[in-house]
Each structure stands twice: as structure tokens, then as C-alpha cells.
Amino acid sequence: MDFGLQTMAFGALVSVFSLYFAGNHLVGAPFSEKYPINILVHIKFFIFLVFKIYIAAFSAIKTIFTGNANPKLLTLKTELKSDFSRTILANAITLTPGTLSMDKRGDVLRVLWLDPKTDDQDEAKEMIFGNFERILKSGENI
Fold this sequence. Notes:
This protein is of the alpha+beta class. The chain has two domains: 1-34; 36-140, no CATH class. It contains six helices and three strands; from the N terminus they run αααβαββαα. A three-stranded antiparallel beta sheet has the order 1-3-2, covered by helices on one side. β2 and β3 (108-113) form a beta hairpin.
């Protein structure tokens, strides 16, 4: 299958149409009004996410091969205000090897951590949410 410029342009066109249709006909309001996003912040977030997935994969592989997994379920509170940003944060945590979002209720996320590096709740929050939360928070102030 060829993933050339035509395929990418067609995919982008279908995506824009889908957002328009879903916003105006399913949600009842344009997507941009319901979920205001700063596209530059989300591009920065995506690049950082890909980087974190790559780095975390090596750590998770090492943990699995050495048998040093010691899973721990954490309850962490996010400072993000919008449900949209919290959902993106929860999905990013799930995509990052070694962590899994188990539940999201309001501003509280329950996260399963494969190999905890600390028992301190604040340190754990910084290690798991860290830059994800900071990048998303910068995009909430638009």
C-alpha cells in the first residue's frame, strides 16, 4: 500500500469532514467550540508523546526481561481543567509502556505502574504526568 502525498491529503480531508459532520450533526455544536484546542500545543504534545513512548519502551522491556516488575495502582489528581485535556492525558499514559490508565473520574486518574521508582505520591505524579500535564495545561489557556 502506498502512503504518498495523495493518501495523506485524502486522509486529512476525510478527517476534517468527519469533525465537521460529528460536531454539527451529532454533538450539536462545532468541534472547535466544544473542544477548543491550540493546534501548536497538540503538535508539540504529539512529538513529546512519541519520544516518551520510545524511551519508556526500553525501560519496560528491561523490567519484563529481568522480572523486576512490581506493579502498583496509584490514585493521582491532575491539575488539568478540561475533560478533553484529562482524556488526552489518560490516553497518553496508556500509550506509554509501563503505565496504564485504569479509571478517570473528574480530575482523578487511577494509574497502574509496572515498575514504580518511588513510593512518594508527588514524585510518582511528576514521573508519570510530568511534561504531559505541563504541555496540555499550556494549551488550556486559549
